[in-house]
Specification:
- By secondary structure, the chain is mainly β.
- The protein has one domain: PRC-barrel domain (SH3 type barrels), CATH 2.30.30.
- It has one helix and six strands.
- Strands 4-3-2-1-6-5 form a six-stranded mixed β-sheet, with no helix packed on it.
- β5 and β6 form a beta hairpin.
- It is globular and about 35 Å long.
Amino acid sequence: MITELSSLLDPGLKMYTDQGAYVGEVEDAVMNVDGGKLHGIALRNLNPEFADGERNVIVPFRWVRAIGDIVIIKHLPHRFGMEPAGEEEEEGTG
């Protein structure tokens, strides 16, 4: 089945966590053209609890739980790009 990406992710669509916290608005989708898969969702108007307003954020598509009138993602226990206290980033990943 072929579906236009714009029919799933309209710019301005609001994104929330599955616990009801506002994250931001959809700005664009990021595609892996070679693999033909949706990689992530670029956001704007971010909630300052999750990221600095000047920061560009792409939410990995694997975090998405549902897309409809809003986008619902897994709850974020910490800010984008920040490791929770007591956890260190593993070397050689990414």
